[in-house]
Design goal:
This protein is mainly alpha-helical and 96 residues long. It is built from 4 helices and no strands.
Length: 96
Amino acid sequence: MSDVPAAAFWALAVYGALGTSTRSAALAGLAASIAILIRPNLAPVAAVIAARSAAGSSGGAYGIVSPRTSRVVPRSVATTAQRIWHVWRLTASTRG
């Protein structure tokens, strides 16, 4: 039952990662965070989306990080990591 909402948020995260603005990068981070809250086992997918967002469309073939990306991506990654930790702590009581 949680596959459809998780897939929707992952699709939104990919859509945001394909954008070039700060707003689209924030959208990608927020959508990935929500998708991880829904399905924590898919957290490694966020690394792929963060790498794409870090490369950016202005980075060209060599993936040079733009100034916008160097500010937004670390915040998105930190927010995602914090939410993963909270989910892990919340589910610790059910693991035994």
